[in-house]
């Protein structure tokens, strides 16, 4: 029962089962390198991988573990169990359990498992989130930025400072990069700043292009 293990650091545990995939199935297992945890985190589908990317970009997330525990329950004489997809620790100390499944891939058994998991999380004060399919344009843009998520892409610091200054007045991505210097050197830093949120752009209205408007985010 979660009541007896609410204080376990589930964000640091190993997966309770192996990640599996079948040659002709819809799943695809793999490992995603998280800059938040500085470790690889497992996934079993592209949808789960996308959710990891979003969690990795969320500044409120400090740790993520996949398949963190088994949840067991009974219905009459029938035994059931479910391993949620992710356990997430937030910056304020709160815990979040995330299950990932597209709406059109939900069946009655899955809905029941998620409902039981949500009730169990409530008993220990955890948040439960069912994460569906993200907006495709937004996700395509974030996937691109994720290529530049590593801290090495945010160097040198002088280029970072120049980009932040140049985009205090919003302007096109390509134009602003050219004002700072050689675009081959500047663009990786620019994309890293868009990933981290130091710079902003519209990630929903369309795929990023050379003319996409970029601006410096005001930090409180």
From TrEMBL:
This is TnsA endonuclease N-terminal domain-containing protein. Residues 58-129 form the TnsA endonuclease N-terminal domain. It holds the Pfam family Tn7_TnsA-like_N. It comes from the Bacteria. NCBIfam families: TnsA_like_Actin (NF033179). It comes from Streptomyces turgidiscabies (strain Car8).
């Amino acid at each position: 029962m979660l009541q007896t293990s609410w204080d376990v650091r589930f964000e640091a545990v190993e997966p309770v089962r192996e990640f599996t995939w079948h040659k002709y199935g819809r799943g695809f297992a793999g490992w995603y390198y998280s800059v938040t945890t500085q470790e690889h985190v497992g996934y079993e589908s592209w949808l789960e991988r996308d959710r990891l990317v979003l969690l990795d970009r969320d500044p409120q997330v400090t740790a993520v573990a996949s398949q963190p525990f088994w949840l067991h329950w009974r219905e009459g004489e029938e035994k059931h169990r479910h391993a949620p997809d992710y356990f997430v620790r937030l910056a304020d100390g709160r815990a979040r359990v995330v299950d990932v499944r597209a709406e059109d891939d939900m069946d009655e058994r899955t809905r029941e498992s998620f409902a039981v998991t949500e009730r169990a999380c409530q008993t220990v004060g955890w948040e439960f989130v069912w994460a569906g399919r993200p907006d495709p344009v937004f996700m395509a843009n974030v996937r691109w930025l994720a290529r530049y998520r590593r801290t090495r892409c945010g160097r040198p610091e002088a280029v970072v400072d120049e980009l932040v200054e140049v985009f205090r007045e919003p302007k096109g991505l390509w134009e602003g990069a050219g004002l700072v210097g050689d675009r081959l050197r500047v663009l990786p830093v620019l994309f890293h700043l868009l990933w981290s949120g130091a710079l902003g752009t519209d990630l929903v209205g369309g795929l990023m292009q050379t003319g996409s408007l970029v601006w410096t985010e005001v930090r409180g």
